[in-house]
From TrEMBL:
One of its GO terms (molecular function) is FAD binding. It comes from Cyanidium caldarium. Residues 89-420 form the FAD-binding domain. The lineage of its organism: Eukaryota, Rhodophyta, Bangiophyceae, Cyanidiales, Cyanidiaceae. Transmembrane segments: none annotated. This is FAD-binding domain-containing protein. It comes from the Eukaryota. Signal peptide: none annotated. It holds the Pfam family FAD_binding_3. PANTHER family: CONDITIONED MEDIUM FACTOR RECEPTOR 1, GERANYLGERANYL DIPHOSPHATE REDUCTASE.
Length: 528
């Protein structure tokens, strides 16, 4: 490093540390205009341009919010024929997390509920198994089928869930930070784990049994073949094939709730959902004792996969769950590349290969679809769509369990009001769409934009990781809150976060321009 370059880097570091300590406009003016000459002034103008661009993007998002949400519809009571004795108020198709939560809270609202599941429990689902805090809250509220505590209490008591304590991320350039985001809430850490790893084979059955215990009629091995609305009786006719023999059975219900997963086969058959799922993901469990991984969870951003990523989560029995996510935005990576990327990265990605070890005992890859960002229409006459079927998967993180379960709560609330006011029209049920748009749909829009930005500018992830490394566990906890949906993505633009990340971005950009970039340190090796 030349003396001039050393002086310049030192001045930049001192200045940005001052701005983080005292982020007042007076301090910024003093530094940019008085203390550091032409370079910081130029950087200051770049920062202003970036701020203007960001503000414009946020205003566009706000415009979508104002245009997309609107005020809720007022009920207009209608006349419905008497409900036959063999009919239900609500038929939920699919007993995944979203469907079971919808059924549970609809029963609690006093409705007669049928819950149909294509497979027989226990059954396997492809998923990252990461249960975020919002989903934990719902599971804590739902009573277990045994009547002894909540669903979450029962899972943890039986040793079937693993609460993540230490984890982190690896950036495209190889910068990494593994820390402990759980601890003293007063110190800025999380008061509990942001993520609990629970296998879907466990979780889905517990939730479905909870709904049945509450009063829903759970029918397993009931594959829905078709459904149509009888406009004379104002009842849905839901045709299924039940059991191994495929015996036909028709159920009747006033309202149909589609909760049949990301392919959204039933809603597509009805012509409400019109597009195929946009993304895909893999999953492979690694047996305990056959890997080198010491942390609880790590997100690995490989530059060839962006805006997708890889993730490793530790399960309750010390197994690992390795996932590879393909998220739209990279023209060089298609859904058809999933198997190739999944297997190639095991060997080619330095951090992933180190974590898995030389001879991981890994099951064969399984794949699942990702319907991202929310569907254009999640309601119709006497119909709602919830969970993955409605595309409630974050386009930036690929996480959907907590959004799906949240949508189940919202759907049950809207149905409670709709039955109370005797208005099951599409006009009134659109309130469901308005509510999920307010709760998390607008955040999906921000995620879509961020995913594209991160693909084009991976240096942003490098800078964010360096910032987390410098700021420590408190900053990691805030990052975890945003990435797991506890905070909206706009929190990334708050001064405390954005200024600190901008500091690292400026320093990293200068270092790369001068070929002075610091070699990444393998943080994964430090975890005991």
């Amino acid at each position: 490093m030349t003396p001039d370059a050393f002086v310049m880097m030192t001045e930049v570091q001192v200045a940005v540390e001052r701005m983080v300590t005292d982020p007042s406009w007076a301090t910024v003016q003093s530094i940019l205009l008085g203390e550091m000459g032409w370079l910081p002034l130029a950087l200051g103008w770049l920062a202003v341009l970036f701020a203007v661009h960001t503000a414009g993007s946020l205003l566009l998002t706000l415009g979508h919010v104002v245009a997309g949400n609107g005020s809720e519809a007022v009920p207009q009571p209608q006349t419905y024929p008497p409900l036959p004795d063999d009919a239900f108020d609500v038929c939920v198709v699919g007993a995944g997390p979203a469907g079971s939560v919808t059924a549970y809270y609809a029963v609690k609202a006093g409705l007669r509920v049928l819950l149909l599941e294509k497979k027989k429990f226990p059954r396997v689902k492809v998923c990252g198994d990461a249960v975020c805090t919002q989903a934990q809250d719902i599971m804590e509220d739902m009573e277990s089928a045994t009547g002894h505590g909540s669903v979450l209490d029962e899972i943890m008591r039986e040793g079937l869930g693993h609460a993540a304590a230490n984890g982190g991320l690896v950036s495209p350039a190889g910068y990494s930070y593994i820390g402990n985001s759980v601890g003293d809430a007063a110190a800025g850490k999380l008061s509990r784990s942001a993520v609990i790893a629970i296998k879907r084979v466990v979780m889905d059955e517990k939730l479905a049994r909870s709904a049945a215990h509450a009063g829903a009629l759970l029918v397993e091995e009931a594959s829905v073949e078709a459904a149509h609305l009888d406009t004379a009786q104002r009842l849905w006719q839901v045709r299924t094939e039940c059991g191994d023999a495929g015996e036909p059975m028709t159920y009747k219900a006033r309202v149909l709730v589609c909760a049949d997963g990301a392919p959204s086969r039933l809603a597509m058959q009805l012509g409400i959902v019109k597009e195929a799922p946009q993304g895909t993901c893999s999953r492979a469990y690694v047996k305990a004792g056959s890997h080198n991984y010491r942390a609880d969870g790590t997100v690995i951003y490989n530059k060839d996969l962006l805006p997708g990523y890889m993730a490793i989560f530790r399960e309750a029995n010390d197994e690992l769950n390795y996932c590879c996510y393909i998220i739209p935005g990279n023209p060089k990576v298609r859904n058809e590349d999933l198997s190739r990327m999944h297997h190639a990265l095991i060997k080619d990605d330095f951090y992933l290969s180190r974590a898995l070890g030389l001879k991981p005992d890994m099951e064969s890859m399984k794949a699942g679809s990702l319907r991202l960002g929310g569907v254009a229409k999640s309601f119709d006459e006497q119909l709602l769509i919830v969970g993955d079927a409605a595309g409630f998967i974050d386009p930036l993180t690929g996480e959907g369990i907590h959004h799906g379960m949240h949508s189940g709560v919202l759907a049950a609330e809207v149905l409670r009001d709709a039955f109370r006011h005797r208005d099951l029209s599409a006009r009134y049920l659109e309130n469901y769409q308005r509510r999920w748009m307010r709760e998390f749909g607008n955040d999906f829009r921000a995620s879509m934009r961020l995913a594209l930005v991160l693909y084009r500018f991976p240096i942003l992830l490098d800078a964010a990781t360096l910032c987390i490394e410098k700021q420590g566990d408190e900053f990691l906890a805030e990052w975890a809150r945003i990435m797991t949906g506890q905070r909206p993505k706009r929190y990334l633009f708050r001064p405390k976060i954005m200024l600190a990340m901008s500091v690292e971005l400026v320093q990293l950009a200068i270092a790369r321009a001068l070929r002075l970039e610091v070699k990444p340190i393998d943080q994964l090796r430090k975890v005991k």
